[in-house]
UniProtKB/TrEMBL annotation:
Keywords: DNA-binding, Transcription, Transcription regulation. It comes from Neisseria dentiae. Residues 15-114 form the HTH hxlR-type domain. This is Transcriptional regulator. PANTHER family: TRANSCRIPTIONAL REGULATOR, TRANSCRIPTIONAL REGULATOR, MARR FAMILY. One of its GO terms (molecular function) is DNA binding. Gene3D superfamilies: Winged helix-like DNA-binding domain superfamily/Winged helix DNA-binding domain (1.10.10.10).
Amino acid sequence: MPKIPHESFTCAAGCTVEATLTLIGGKWKGVILYRLLTENVLRFNELRRLLPNITQRMLTNQLRELERDGLIARHVYAEVPPKVEYRLTDYGQTLALVIFALKAWGDAHVRQANTETRPA
């Protein structure tokens, strides 16, 4: 059964963590935000190349949700073929510390997991 997110976050301690995870949670949003933090501006197909395991439909949906939540901006250039670029908004930039902290923790986790699974 899918989890239904809260519509407002006026609840007990920890609820703000849920609010944050609602915005950046899932398999791809954090990675998309990280790529936009490190690359600054990316076109749709550049994101597809950087995330080879994501489907076009999933990437489109994740980008739409991030745009709807005000974390990224989409700029469409009036040319043929259409050129679309994505970048973090100022609001999205405020997640930099969170995203880089997740990356640092993930790097440490992968190192530890690799150390524990290596034969002695």
